[in-house]
Amino acid sequence: MNKNFQKQLSTINWVHYDTILLDMDGTVLDLAFDNYFWRELVPGVYAEQHDITEDAACQHIYDLYSGREGTLEWYCLEFWTEQLGLDLLALKKSSHDRIRFLPGARTFLDAVKAGNKRLVLVTNAHQHALDLKKAVTGLDQWFDEFVCSHDFGVPKEHPDFWCQLQEKLQFDPATTLFVDDSIPVLDAAVEYGLAAVVAIRKPDTRMPPKDTEGHYFIDGVGWWI
Question: Are 33 and 202 in contact (CB under 8 A)?
């Protein structure tokens, strides 16, 4: 990493902000669970149900996925339950032992809570998925509020999401820090005018670091501790 860029990044410190907005999957929790679920478990179960090869199931499912990324449907368990004819919530529950925090995330959350900051989880995940992950991980003990984009009718990638979020939370963009692993979401936050926007470079512990496309980044929120 360029040393000048590294120096710039070091000036973005969570302690300087009143409100901290955190994504869930890939920021607090390991995205490895979701990638396993959608790329391995779902195609495998679909193949078994339809008596086809996993390769054929992957091709069919990936064709369904195509073009929907960044839309609310992309994140909607109910939509994909209908499209695939699978009880996706039951499948998530059956594999809940794979839901884990990213390295250092709990230590970071402890520090933020001890610092008396306003901490809000802001996710595109469906409410049912959020409820399951809250039950498994105990996220309630750290976060003051939870916001699902489904309640706003638009995903975090959409400008209207940020207008509605500000109206709901009444945060000051100048004193608010936002952390996420999605480049389109980070782009939308920057466009809205948040003072500090930081990308997670290693949202999935099974994968190599990702290109954050010019955004200030950290490998994970544990970097701040």
Answer: no
